[in-house]
Amino acid sequence: MTRKKALDFYGRECNRCGDKRYLNIHHKNYLNYGCEQMEDLEVVCKSCHQKIHDKKRTVPIPDKRGARQLRKEIKRLRSFVMRNYLSKEDADKMIEILNKQLLRHKANQKLK
Q1: Can you give the pLDDT of all 112 residues of the chain as single tens digits?
Q2: Rounded-to-integer distance, Cα 66 and Cα 54, Å
Q3: I need a labelling partner for 22 at 20 to 30 A (CA). Which of 13, 42, 80, 109 fits?
Q4: Read out DSSP for 33-65?
Q5: What pLDDT shows up at residue 61?
Q6: Which residues are CB-neighbours of 54 under 8 A, at least 6 positions away?
Q7: What share of residues in the chain are helix, strand, coil (percent, to 5)?
Q8: Taking the domains of the chain in order of start, what are their residue ranges?
Q9: CB-based contacts of 29: which residues, under 8 Å, 6+ apart?
Q10: Strand, helix or coil at 86?
């Protein structure tokens, strides 16, 4: 359903190169996976999508997020790895960042 909505909303061509074949829907961030807004999505061809995913990724997550939300994001990220959206190395880096933020959050809660 999300794929069709994105194609209807953005048009049926790659947003980066204009190719109309082998179109994919790219999630600009994975924090809202499953409940995306249109601004979280981008229509790209297979080639451009691969280039996007070959770049080094970071997950900007504010420290204000609760532990529950961080755990959800870690779980989502692990499911992405299971479906081969990320390399194991990239996923491990992202999980490490999320785990550090979770520990920081727990430490801040103890200080309050």
Answers
A1: 578 888 999 999 999 999 999 999 998 877 777 777 888 899 999 999 888 887 745 444 444 556 677 777 777 776 766 665 556 677 777 777 777 777 777 777 666 5
A2: 30
A3: 80
A4: TTS--GGGEEEEEHHHHHHHHHS-------TTS
A5: 46
A6: none
A7: 55, 10, 35
A8: 1-55, 57-112
A9: 40, 59
A10: coil
